[in-house]
Amino acid sequence: MIQNYSQLIERISKSSGMAAEEIDRRVEAKRAKLSGLISKEGAAQIVASELGINFEKEKMKISELLPGMKRVNIIGKVIKLFPVRNFSKNGREGKVVSMIIADETANIRTALWDTNHIQLIESKKIKEGDVVEISNASIRNTELHLTNFSGIKPSLERIEDVKTEKMYFDRKISDFVSGENIRTRAVIVQMFEPRFFEICPECNKKAIKDAEGSRCEAHGKIMPIKRALLTLVLDDGNSNTRAVMFSEGIEKIGIKEIENTEEFLKKKEELMGDELYFAGNVRQNKVFNTNELIIEDLQQLDVEHLIEQLETKTKG
Ligand SMILES: [Zn+2]
């Protein structure tokens, strides 16, 4: 998982020759001046521009990209290329291609909208595994977007070890947008009874129960795998959200035997009020018509945050 802030500070330090600690101090001063109304990342961008650093002319590492950035230049490897899709919007027909671009620091979902760029894909001048140079792109909803003002071309640069694990952007709950991969720091304020269901071991689709046992539409008679689903409510101090977690996440949060009601209730008591980082995908819940987080990963707060918390407590 990424730590945009510390990487951004390192980048500013490298470009300005100023020590990272000093930049961090300036960022905090800037935030204090603005009464904490902006994020650390936002304040860091202001400090960078005050130091005369212009990211527009520099190549960025993918882990350094932040929501809202424009005129982004990167070099990365196409690790996944999705088929060309046709769309029609406001009576206009168009094409779009999605791909995942990776470098040694992170990866990002990227969308190409320009017909010339899509032509490069259709003619296989750019294909999966190729390294490409992207210029003048922008970050929209945690994705990199290339319009007709942007550029993409094959690069001769070699990138060996690319980061293939999913990248998440830090977001407050109130800023959740459906479809985004986000990470949020929040407290567990509610945890509902787990629900259980069975899936096909081949395709992970929900198993169908009948008189003869379990079957899958695609794979016929199967020995299903039992899976658990846990619904939580997360709160970041300003807003809250529903979140759901499947078996892998439930194990990561420390509940080893979810089916054991006694263990579940004991663990639930321990976990209520705990503050963690939750990473995953934001989806629209069609029943409640609200956003919810599909938790894919979770992480303890790092030491820096714990100290920060202690300091606030002591001061308060
Ligand atoms: Zn199946």
Brief descriptors of the model:
316 residues; alpha+beta; OB fold (Dihydrolipoamide Acetyltransferase, E2P); 3 domains; five-stranded mixed β-barrel; five-stranded mixed beta barrel; 7 helices; 37% strand; binds zinc ion
Explain this structure to me?
The protein has 316 residues and is α+β, with helices and mostly antiparallel strands. The longest helix is centred in the first third of the chain and has 14 residues, at 20-33. It has three domains: 1-53, no CATH class; 55-167, OB fold (Dihydrolipoamide Acetyltransferase, E2P), CATH 2.40.50.140; 169-315, OB fold (Dihydrolipoamide Acetyltransferase, E2P) (Beta Barrel), CATH 2.40.50. It has helices at 4-16, 20-33, 40-50, 115-122, 247-252, 261-271, 303-315; strands spanning 72-81, 85-89, 92-102, 107-112, 131-140, 143-146, 151-154, 169-170, 181-191, 195-199, 208-210, 213-216, 220-221, 225-235, 240-246, 275-285, 290-299. It has seven helices and 17 strands. The structure holds zinc ion. Zinc ion (ZN) is lined by residues 200, 202-203, 205, 216, 218-219.
Concise structural overview:
With 316 residues, the protein is α+β, with helices and mostly antiparallel strands. The chain has 3 domains: 1-53, no CATH class; 55-167, Nucleic acid-binding proteins (OB fold (Dihydrolipoamide Acetyltransferase, E2P), Beta Barrel); 169-315, OB fold (Dihydrolipoamide Acetyltransferase, E2P).
